Recover the amino acids of this structure.
């Protein structure tokens, strides 16, 4: 099965990519509420007070519905992941290592030890299987790639947080002082020619940008003093954060990867009416 992690043979597919100008059109729906107060009867004035009260309450309720819907959808998007059916979210406090000069293994120059550390994070895990009954609420369309029922059915899918780490790892490999090392090896993403590598790297860069903006950290970075003889301020990057149980998610994703080798007919071909793109989006 050709998984999302399989970089080989990507060149020809990507060659069909052509620049497309897109526009985001935002439409505003204007709702006019007409009230005909011209025809008044002679009923007691307090009835108008009652209608005003009802109208005010309806206005408050209706104006709050969009926000309630958006809030519900936001929570819904966080809670629908099939991963959470098996790995409940737990939180813990963790202090980030924000050192500028003291490098840990993830920051060192390219080498076997560094690669092993990143691999251990799950950056190249194969897809998991999302059961058919969980697909729609997980954001997977009915006409996306499916596994044949003979092999258990469901949809192949990657844990998105691990894809973010995969992308971060590719950016690390593409740093000017690491690039030659990986380019010479010609493995993984670097099996492809430079045109595809460039597109892959820029894709990963923008995925991480969007993720960071979507989950903007509203914490603040204070400053500390350096050099007793000549005090100078410096940003304190070693801040505490409320973190999810990453390791539990990683272990689950590792244990639930689809097989490395699958039969040639493992995936069900698209049916009539299913979306089939002409080129890589």
């Amino acid at each position: 099965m050709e998984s999302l992690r399989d970089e080989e043979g990507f060149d020809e597919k990507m060659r069909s990519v052509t620049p497309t100008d897109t526009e985001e059109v935002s439409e505003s729906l204007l709702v006019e509420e007409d009230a005909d107060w011209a025809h008044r009867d002679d009923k007691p004035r307090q009835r108008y007070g009652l209608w005003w009260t009802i109208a005010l309450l309806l206005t408050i309720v209706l104006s709050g519905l969009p926000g309630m819907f958006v809030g519900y959808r936001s929570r819904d998007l966080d809670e629908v992941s099939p991963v959470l059916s098996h790995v409940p979210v737990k939180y813990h406090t963790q202090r980030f290592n924000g050192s500028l000069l003291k490098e840990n293994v993830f920051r060192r120059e390219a080498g076997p030890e560094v690669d092993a550390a990143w691999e251990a994070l799950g950056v190249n895990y194969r897809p998991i299987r999302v059961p058919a009954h969980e697909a729609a609420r997980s954001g997977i369309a009915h006409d996306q790639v499916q596994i044949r029922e003979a092999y258990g059915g469901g949809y192949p899918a990657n844990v998105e947080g691990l894809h973010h780490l995969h992308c971060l790892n590719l950016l690390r490999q593409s740093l000017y002082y690491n690039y030659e090392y990986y380019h010479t090896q010609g493995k993984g993403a670097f099996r492809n020619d430079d045109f595809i590598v460039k597109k892959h790297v820029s894709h990963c860069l923008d995925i991480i940008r969007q993720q960071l903006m979507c989950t903007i950290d509203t914490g603040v970075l204070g400053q500390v003093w350096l050099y007793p003889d000549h005090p100078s301020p410096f940003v304190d990057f070693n801040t505490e954060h409320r973190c999810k149980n990453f390791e539990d998610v990683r272990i689950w994703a590792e244990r639930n990867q689809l097989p490395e080798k699958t039969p040639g007919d493992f995936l069900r071909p698209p049916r009539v009416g299913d979306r089939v793109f002409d080129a890589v989006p």
Residues 71-268 form one domain. Confidence is low (pLDDT under 50) at residues 1-5, 15-43, 66-75. The chain is about 35% helix and 10% strand.
